[in-house]
Amino acid sequence: MRLLILFCWIFSHAHAGFINQLSASDTLPVNRVVQLAEQQTKAYFAVHRDSLRFLHSLTASGQPVEVNIHGWTAGFFPGKLWYLHAFTHNPYWQQQALAYTLPLSADDTLTTTHDLGFMVGIPFEKAYQTTHQAEFREVLIRAAHSLSQRFHPQVGEIKSWDGGPWHYPVIVDNLMNLELLFRATALTGDSSFYRIAVSHINHDLRYRFRKDFSTFHVLDYDPASGSLLARKTWQGYADSSCWSRGQAWAIYGLTVAYRYTQNKRYLFYAQKAADYFIRHIAVIPDHIPPWDFNAPDSLKQLKDASAAAIAASALLELKRYVPAKKAAYYQQWAMNLLQSLCSPAYLNINNTHTYFLLKHATGDAHHHREMDVPLIYADYYLLQALWRYTHPERPDFFF
User: Fold this and answer.
1) At residue 244, does pLDDT exceed 70?
2) 258-291 b/e with 16+ CB inside 10 Å = b?
3) What does the similarity note say (predicted)?
4) How many C-beta neighbours within 10 Å does residue 68 have?
5) Backbone phi, then psi, for 229, in 5-degree steps?
6) pLDDT value of residue 395
7) How far is CA 394 from each of CA 30, 66, 384, 388, rounded to the nearest angstrom?
8) Active-site hit among 107, 108, 173, 204
């Protein structure tokens, strides 16, 4: 018993010392955010404990909205738990992260979704980096094989959705899931994954950007000929507008693509996407984007904190690959976003029972869904951005 008490005392002081060390030298309240995330997650566990259900959002009455193992956002909740473990080194959070990660291995053979990078890649990459267990590596490889099945050689890209009013839709979000393929090549030496990812990006860049470097959300192809049929939106305001989270996905996805390929064309487009994003948030007092940059003024008050968190995290990696002056520029804009996100206007500082760090995110205003709500991926990318901020030397690795 004495040894147990001694261990707990040493651990608690080491934990506090680690977090205090982070917060003592930076201008972001890393300590407060991490501790708040711990409190909120424990409050959630106290009343909702099912490792086959994954926190996604809240209802208007404050009740948790959860998804099952096949929900596209399922991987973000264990991803958040892995970051709590990384920040605190508390074995409790590793136990919880594993409990919510392991069930998602059931998704590694799914061929009906393009979101395996979110669902499987996020939690299992962190599990593998933390534990080095071969079984987690194998899950990642199987998931990459499954994602590869959605690649159509004639189109040259991975199909996003089955069904709906499309012929062969490819959404900007797809760029995010390509990291799973790049990692699979790194893990196995099998270049087929890499070739699919590169083909996807090269074909995508032909049509994804407008002349001002804003992005289209949906590219619809003719699967027989591979020719482009239409450029549309599904979650943005209009086909001609720029959905802010889609723009953030483009910054992030193309930055990751450059990390793995060193292809300067990808870096060029990542910067252009970032510069467009920054130009538009620069004229907003708190810099947090509306859900769509081109929405009419009556709808621009609807913010998307998730787009801000994704962009901040992406900028903190992008700055590593550009000259010093541009790096400082991206660093400052990441800070501007994070300072707003960590302010009382967006951070749930005094209400741990919301179960979420961030408020004022928007999922799909085009269809009047998830408007001005917390969303799990907003929390995930906020913690990732803070991790990258406090570990600038290795933003591409978990530890």
Assistant:
1) yes
2) bbbbeeeebbebbbbbbbbbbebbeeeebbbbbb
3) Belongs to the glycosyl hydrolase 88 family.
4) 11
5) -100, -40
6) 64
7) 17, 32, 12, 7
8) 173
Percent over 70 (pLDDT), the chain: 92
The reported pLDDT for the residue numbered 396 is 65
pLDDT band at 19 (very low <50, low <70, confident <90, very high): very low
163, pLDDT greater than 90: no
With respect to residue 26, please indicate whether it lies within any of the assigned structural domains: no
Answer whether 329's CB lies under 8 Å from 317's CB.
Answer: no
Domain-embedded: residue 396 = no
Tokens of 211: 């002349």
DSSP string, 203-263: HHTTTSB-TTS-B-SEEEE-TTT--EEEEE-SSSS-TTS-BHHHHHHHHHHHHHHHHHH--
- Helix or strand run (H / E) with residue 67: strand 64-67
Q: Which of the following is catalytic: 108, 115, 292, 304? A: 115
The burial of 106, by beta-carbon neighbours within 10 Å (0-12 exposed, 13-18 middle, 19 or more buried), is given as middle
Q: Which domain holds residue 147?
A: 38-390
Q: Is 115 a catalytic residue?
A: yes
Query: What does the pLDDT read at residue 350?
Result: 80
Query: Per the structure, how many domains does the chain have?
Result: 1
Question: In CATH, what number is assigned to the domain containing residue 300?
Answer: 1.50.10.10
The answer to whether the beta carbons of residues 348 and 342 sit under 8 Å apart is no
pTM, to two decimals = 0.93
The model's confidence at residue 240, banded by pLDDT at 50, 70 and 90, is very high
Q: Which amino acid is at 155?
A: V
